[in-house]
Design brief:
heterodimer, A: alpha+beta, 60s Ribosomal Protein L30, Chain: A, seven-stranded mixed sheet, 7 strands, about 20% helix, B: alpha+beta
């Protein structure tokens, strides 16, 4: 199934100052968000495979848009995350069918690597709901400086028969990260964790 | 007073591919740029505040430039605009009014001396406050197809001593606009109204 996209929204945050101190260079994070029709809203459908393909298509489209919004090559992206909000007449499982089976592979292609699990969140909600997209380092999930989250919302979505699908990508960790843990300079990047 | 210190820029782009009925031939685009800046007057009453308008001029120009880039780079394609401010709780609504001149004229200049007044909204609010920024046609306020609004908010702003300044631009009328009134093609473009 090809996703019927009503709207695509991109959000870029550029942080220049945090805690009163300059962030140099400024940190950037971007989210690309698609509002798609949920053809299974209002009915129970056993086979959700059509959503797997829609997820694959959106993984490509949204990660490309997010990287373009950051203005960096995909390989320079440092952390990633994904999230979905299903409108009132859909099931939480619809979000899972989009996010989990096939969305990740094209994201990793766009970002060059991405050995880590892509952190995710999902919910059922109405228009204007806030999605907190969890963020983690793309090659080593334990990199503590990159644990983060990005809030996005779209005033008019999801309608009852829609799904909001979001991918977030950053060029850096938290501004002034200083709580220790695994550093990005120490990554092995083989098992997705360390 | 020094130029405004920006803590964070947020850029949001919406591309609307579908809105009930047949998909429009050309997707509609709208974008907002928000800047989170320190409010030098927070926490006390200051009588003389207009000097901040000059300090905000470079910010207005920078934000207008970012908007044109976010919308594809062609200023001539842009035919709608609006502006707004959210003043953190230690400030006054009047501080938000300082944005009218630097925010409005930066856009009007960049868009080829646009004739219409730039519609605006402002409020005092807390972190995550949403603002509906009104949008009208850049050369004739009465163009009915271009009456619109763009909702924006930032999860971590404004803090009590900050102000979020917002500029919005758009390309094209509401999708499937059919509420009559003055059409964009009939604009005289002399008085900014018709």
């Amino acid at each position: 199934m090809k996703a019927a996209i009503r709207k695509i929204v991109t959000v870029v945050e550029e942080t220049l100052v945090e805690g009163g101190r300059a962030v140099s260079p400024p940190t950037k994070r971007a989210a690309a968000i698609a509002v798609i029709k949920n053809p299974f809203a209002g009915s129970y459908v056993e086979d959700l495979a059509p959503f797997f393909d829609a997820g694959e298509e959106l993984g490509q489209l949204l990660s490309e848009r997010a990287v373009a919004a950051l203005g960096i090559p995909g390989s320079s992206a440092e952390s990633f995350g994904k999230a979905a909000a299903v409108g009132g007449d859909g099931e939480l499982e619809h979000a899972a069918a989009i996010l989990h089976p096939k969305l990740g592979a094209p994201v990793r292609r766009v970002l060059g690597k991405g050995a880590s699990l892509i952190p995710s969140s999902k919910k059922r909600a109405g228009p204007g709901t806030a999605l907190d997209i969890p963020l983690g380092h793309k090659d080593a999930a334990y990199v503590r400086s990159h644990f983060d989250g990005m809030e996005v919302r779209i005033a008019d979505a999801p309608r009852a028969d829609e799904i909001v699908v979001a991918i977030a990508v950053t060029d850096s960790g938290r501004p002034h990260a200083r709580v220790g843990g695994l550093k990005k300079t120490e990554i092995k990047g083989e098992d997705g964790l360390h | 007073m020094a130029p405004a210190q920006v803590r964070k820029y947020v850029t949001v782009v919406e591309e609307i591919l579908h809105e009930g009925g047949p998909p429009p031939a050309v997707p509609r685009k709208r974008a907002a740029v928000a800047a989170v800046v320190e409010n030098p007057f927070a926490g006390r009453y200051v009588e003389e505040i207009v000097s901040l308008m000059d300090d905000l001029k470079p910010l207005g120009i920078e934000m207008a430039r970012r908007l044109v880039v976010a919308l594809g780079g062609d200023a001539r394609a842009i035919d709608g605009y609006g502006k707004g401010a959210i003043v953190g709780e230690a400030g006054e609504l009047e501080h938000g009014a300082l944005w009218h001149m630097p925010g409005g004229y930066a856009m009007r200049e960049l868009l080829g001396n646009a004739k219409a007044i730039v519609p605006s909204a402002k409020k005092v609010g807390g972190l995550g406050t949403r603002l509906d920024v009104p949008i009208t046609h850049i050369n004739a306020s009465y163009v009915r197809s271009h009456f619109d609004a763009f909702e924006i908010g930032i999860a971590d702003a404004p803090r009590s001593h900050e102000i979020v300044f917002v500029l919005v631009m758009s390309i094209g009328p509401r999708v499937h606009n059919r509420a009559g009134g003055l059409a964009a093609k009939d604009v005289k473009g002399e008085d900014g109204l018709r």
